[in-house]
Amino acid sequence: MRLRFLYLLILLATLCAQPLAAQKKEMKEADKYFNSFEYALALDAYKKLMERKEPDAYLLERIADSYRLMNNSKEAEFWYAQASGFENIASASIYYYAEAAKRNGNYEKAKELYTSYARRVPEQASMAMKQAASCDTAMFWTNRPLSYEIAVEQKLNSSGVDFSPIQLPNGDMVFSSDRLPTDDSKKKERFNWTGNGFVQLYYASMNEDSTWSEPNPLSKEINTDFHNGPASFLPKENTLYFTRTNSVKRSQSKVNTDPTSWVNRGDGKGTGNINRHEIFMARRNGDEWVDVKPFKYNKPQEYSVGHPAITPDGKVLYFVSDMPGGKGETDIYYCERQPDGNWGEPVNAGEIINTSGRESFPSIGGDGKLYFSSDGHVGLGGLDIFRAEGEHGSWTRVHNLMYPLNTSRDDLGIVVDSSGTKGWLSSGRTSESGYDNIYKFREVNVECTLVGQTYETVDQPGTHIKKRVMVDNVLLQLFEENVGSMVETHSDSTGNFNYKVEAGMQYTIRGSKKGYLTQTILFTPDCRFSIDSLLVEMIMYRDTPNVPIVLENIFYDLDKHDIRPDAAIELDKLVRILKANPTIRIELSSHTDSRQTRKYNQDLSERRAQAAVDYIVSKGIERSRMVAKGYGETRLRNKCADFVECSEEDHQVNRRTEFKIIGK
């Protein structure tokens, strides 16, 4: 009887252990898919496991990671949120949770999570807090949209990823897509990373009614059975430069394997082959592609080279690589065509362009500028599109194209016309799955009303406090700089006037009236937020000789005479006055407060006055029209002389720059 009872206990323990052993086996199989970058298969395996066991932090994180690596930020945020309920959630998952929230436009939540990550990982605090601050920038831009119309190109897009369009000289389009083939023999061919097809290059013709024909894949000379694209076309040589992904034997523990964005995916434990990019060239001969050749600097056994962008003259080829010596995960490089026709050595585009993150998808706009995507520069989330200022070898800055050209999702692969105001781009902005679609965009002019006032400022009796006095009947001429047209009006009895203007246009308003100096204002109206009117103020100055006019906000650093940027803005206004009143000659004077010695103040004021005159001359005004004069502390405007105790505000009244008309 005792032996029988013991047998029953052993049998019960065995039966209980079987489900646990099965779960461990299933987890091991799911992890194998994950570590081999087969995230679509891993996701199915983890979700099946969820039906058999109580979820824990690890399982929830793996599901979230799979969605993240499949670029589905909506699902990734949801599953990271579930995992965050466990105390043993990994710090990295908090960061990925923040990234997913930011990609979904959930900026307040992202800020909170970046801050939490900074507390958890002090050595990463600086980076995390910069990311938190970028959420404020993203909210600011999103609330101040630029004036663009954006529409999805339904005919070009599929249920998969469609991205990086390029336009051929005849107006037709070539783009990349991982849509599943329509050929019955290939319907089962899927890329286990995403569950979609392999990236191929497709061609669509522009119909007479400006619609697109049904896209078809390029020929087998371009498209292999693996990934191909994106591409760039050089009309001058009728040549297509395109990316081709090859599978090579794995030789490193950490690799970049994503065929489209080259992120360090997974934890590096997978085995077998990895994906590496190469650039190939093919010449178009009628309807055929011939002379397919590899780029000289392909090196798939060591790193990727892809995403080509060729300049219209064929002299510079930009591309993306994770070759050693770069500044981040992927950098933009360029090669210059040599006199013998060969390509020179790759050159890193430098730290103005490249960051510690990902730079990718370069393109040359019809306006001749370099465009590219990055997640290392300040942006709205994911990849943002940037425009580079300058040229290769001497970049000066990069400009975020801002919302709505950029969104919280990935934005990439832009085509821009010669005006820089319309074209196509690819983006995951409206996709539930995170898949990219192709959109067309164009800048539109938004109209609003400019409301202006003309006035002069006069001292109140016995004080140096200014008050406004409206000036009526000022002739106001509005010039539209880009068109050259002019509209005239007059200020009314209360000094008010108005014009209809368009956002983004450059205007000049010239105001003139007998007894006053002619004034000009340059401005570019911002008609966003459905604002009905914008306010512009014009200060009118009397043209009475020898009456000093104080230039407001002309400040100098203590004991220095250099022209500061804020002072330059005010001096530019005087430049415009001198250009609008070409017959006047002025004295430009500088004054100090009573602190320091009289000689010191005299010398300092003379240097400051001369520096101001020199600056104005540099802006095109003849030196003979100006006299620089320093008065030191000899013309104080209040009681603050030597040994008189005064506030800083009172001293500031005496530190001023003035001009007065001394001749016509």
UniProtKB/TrEMBL annotation:
Entry keyword set: Cell outer membrane, Membrane, Signal
Phosphoprotein is among the record's keywords: no
Major site of localization recorded for this protein: membrane
InterPro entries xrefs: Bact_OuterMem_StrucFunc, OMP_bac, OmpA-like, OmpA-like_sf, TPR-like_helical_dom_sf, WD40
Annotated compartments: Cell outer membrane
OmpA-like domain span: 543-664
Protein's recorded name: WD40 repeat protein
GO cellular component, one term: cell outer membrane
Signal peptide, first to last residue: 1-21
